[in-house]
Amino acid sequence: MVTTGLIKSIQDIMRKDVGVDGDAQRIGQLVWMLFLKIFDDREREWESLNDDYQSPIPDQFRWRSWAADDEGITGDELKDFIDNKLFPALQSLESSSKNKQAFVIRSVFEDAYNYMKSGQLIRQVINKIEEGIDYNKAQERHTFGEIYEQILRDLQSAGNAGEYYTPRAVTQFMVRMVNPKLGERVLDPACGTGGFLSGAIEHMRKQVRTTEDEKLLQASIFGVEKKPLPHLLCTTNMILHGIDVPTNIRHDNTLSRPLISYNPKERVDIIVTNPPFGGMEEDGIESNFPTTYRTRETADLFLVLIMHLLKPNGRAAVVLPDGTLFGEGIKTRIKEQLLETCNLHTIVRLPKGVFSPYTSISTNLLFFTKGMATKDVWYYEHPYPSGMKSYNKTKPIHIDEFQAEERWWGAESKNFKSRTESEFAWKVSAGEIKNRNYNLDIKNPHSPESEKRDPDELLAEYKEMQMQIEFVRNKLRSALADALNEVHQ
After folding, report:
1. Please, are residues 239 and 246 in contact by the beta-carbon 8 Å criterion?
2. Pairing state of beta strands 310-321 and 186-188?
3. Tens-place pLDDT, residues 33-81
4. pLDDT greater than 60 at residue 451
5. Same domain (yes/no): 59, 73
């Protein structure tokens, strides 16, 4: 594939540079360059449509001015230009109500970094980008999307950076099931590289018919990301998906804001997200939440935040680990609040390996609607494809594997009355869950491991196993005694 070859050739050049250490730095280096290339190509498009268009970037710092000429500045001159002129200029761009693009660029570059030390190698990378991609050629426009997907696949295995990547099949399925409508406000409060938001854009753009519809879409996408690299990737992703001025993609920690400070106008219709799990927030973050729910565990705080930020009848799809389902203490209180204030209508239980190699933790997709207490929770156990024992980097989960869930899903407006139990699906009442102290970790009752067995039969099997163990133990004891006797003789 051309895209794979292009990325590999760029990475091979970067590996020669002493300043770039590891995949995460290579990705960070490549993405700020791609951002400027993409932005410049989009500017050419905007200029052709608007004679009065003015770039937020001063002329000497636009990609076309210093990068587009393959025999342009190089070596120490290029390195000095990037470090001492380009980056300072982009990091200090002044924005205004008429020039919001400057704010986007400044926020992207405030934590970006030029890792490369060799100006000659920087020039080689720039030339590869120039010769390999032209966003304004219709036949090559899809190449940017392919490059982005390749970068995300590389990011998936780049150490801890993999936490920002959710498999595309999972994001597509979750977006389809919450089914965002044009005009609804969509939020990912831990947006990472923007997979859920780009999925929502693709889903809603099918509903766009007029320029007014497109404006509505442009204003409907909201995201917040704490870390610089995924924020840069997300902003780039939004531009790739036609969000011309993604000012609603903020570089911030959503959890750092007091819950009571949100006003009703900030509530959203849809939240679709994979919040970080297994991590702990810095001291003091928990004080932004009611005493009942104060914890430093990231996933728990996000679940409380999500419930708070949804409008009445707002819909959510959230990735959460098994630990949230069976956890006690504060987790129990959070789940009680979830079932009392929201209709937790569906939990899709994913098998291990979906997020490999970042984590092997078993995960779940929770779907709920705010404003009505839960009566029943439907579970669906997602099986491995026939012949597969686990997912991995070379055998990831695919969107067509979710077709069975989609056929089974039904419409929420009918309270999912069309759903039926099967070898993969089962229903549990809210009353039963309450009796379990809000433990949502309920195994599939139809699986072979869950078959009810006669106690006398199980006891007989246990006794037989004990006898076999004793037999093997005696044989080992006898063999060891014989060996010792031979040594003493």
Report:
1. yes
2. unpaired
3. 988 998 998 898 889 888 889 999 999 999 999 998 888 899 999 999 9
4. no
5. yes
The Cα 35–Cα 38 span in angstroms is: 5
Number of residues written out for the chain:
489
Q: What's the domain count of the chain?
A: 2
- Type of residue found at 90: L
Q: Residue 6: enclosing H or E segment and its boundaries?
A: helix 2-15
Tell me the HSE value of 121 on the side-chain side, using a 13 A CA sphere: 20
| Residue 110 CB contacts under 8 Å (≥ 6 apart), including other chains | 91, 228, 251
The 3-state DSSP class for residue 57 equals: coil
Cis peptide before 357 (omega within 30 of 0): yes
**Strand order across the 425-429 sheet:** 249-251, 221-225, 186-188, 268-273, 310-321, 363-370, 342-349, 376-381, 425-429
- CA end-to-end span of the chain: 71
Whether residue 79 lies inside any domain: the answer is yes
55 and 129, same structural domain? yes
The Cα 276–Cα 397 span in angstroms is 20
Residues 382, 405 contacting (CB under 8 angstroms): yes
344 with 368: CB under 8 angstroms? yes
Residue range 230-239: mean pLDDT, rounded:
87
Q: Between the CA of residue 425 and those of 21, 344, 445, what are the distances in Å?
A: 47, 15, 9
CATH code, domain with 44: 1.20.1260.30
Specify the DSSP class assigned to residue 85: I
H/E run at residue 416: none
* Residue 327 contacts residue 441 (beta carbons within 8 Å): no
Long-range contacts of 47-53, Cβ-Cβ distance < 8 Å, separation of 24 or more: none
Q: Scanning the structure block, which residue is given the tokens 């939020």?
A: 187
Q: Is 308 exposed, middle or buried (0-12, 13-18, 19+ CB in 10 A)?
A: middle
Q: Does the pLDDT of residue 240 top 90, yes or no?
A: no
Domain limits for position 132: 2-156
- Confidence (pLDDT) at 1: 43
SS (H, E, C) 104-159: HHHHHHCCCCCCCCCHHHHHHHHHHHHHHCCCCCHHHHHHHHHHHHHHHHHHHCCH
Residue 159 Ramachandran class (φ > 0 left, ψ -120 to 50 alpha, else beta): left
* CA distance to 462, 480, 484, 489, per residue, from 476 (Å): 21, 6, 12, 20
- Return the number of other C-beta atoms located less than 10 Å from residue 266's C-beta: 12
Amino acid at residue number 121 = L
Q: Residue 463: pLDDT above 70?
A: no
Show the beta-strand stretches assigned E in 304-457. 310-321, 342-349, 363-370, 376-381, 425-429
Average pLDDT, the chain: 85
